[in-house]
Amino acid sequence: MPPIENRSLPKGLPGLRGAEHVGFTVPDIEEATSFFVDVIGCEYFFELGPFAASDDWMQTHLNVHPRAVARKLRFFRCQNGPNFEIFEYQAPDQNMTPPKNSDVGGHHLAF
Fold first, then answer.
1. Residues 23, 27, 31, CA angle at the centre, nearest 5°?
2. φ, ψ for residue 69 (rounded to 5)?
3. What is the pLDDT of residues 67-106, one digit of tens each?
4. H helix count then E strand count, the chain
5. Pairing mode, if any, of strands 83-90 and 21-25?
């Protein structure tokens, strides 16, 4: 990395203090709700949905099939960490096989 001339310049986004929430797409929102509430101990506090569009909004803004439906979105608070948002989608081109950790888009959740 090239040297920075003025080290006193602010770094990062102004006002950023941490992560607000992390989102996951899940195959079964009821099962995921049970996991976040009963196993992890999060507080379930909000639900939205369904969301769909008759134009290309879903594809343009969310990079999903234009006819995808975000059936439900639920939000959870987990003590002092970030909140969690889970989605249950239905889409004509949906891949139900989760990515491996080594795949682009692979992920894990750690506490």
1. 90
2. -125, 125
3. 999 999 999 998 887 899 999 999 999 999 988 999 998 8
4. 2, 4
5. parallel
pLDDT of residue 79: 85
Residue 70 corresponds to which tokens in the numbers above? 């975000």
Mean pLDDT for the chain overall: 90
Domain boundaries, the chain: 21-65+82-90
Name the strand (E) or helix (H) holding 49: none
- pTM for the model: 0.78
pLDDT of residue 57: 96
Residue 59: its pLDDT value, please?
96
Residues 6 or more apart whose Cβ sits within 8 Å of residue 52? 58, 67, 68, 69, 70
SS3 content of the chain, % helix, strand, coil (to 5): 15, 25, 60
The answer to whether the CB of 71 falls within 8 A of the CB of 90 is yes
Nearest of 21, 80, 69, 19 to residue 46 by alpha carbon: 21
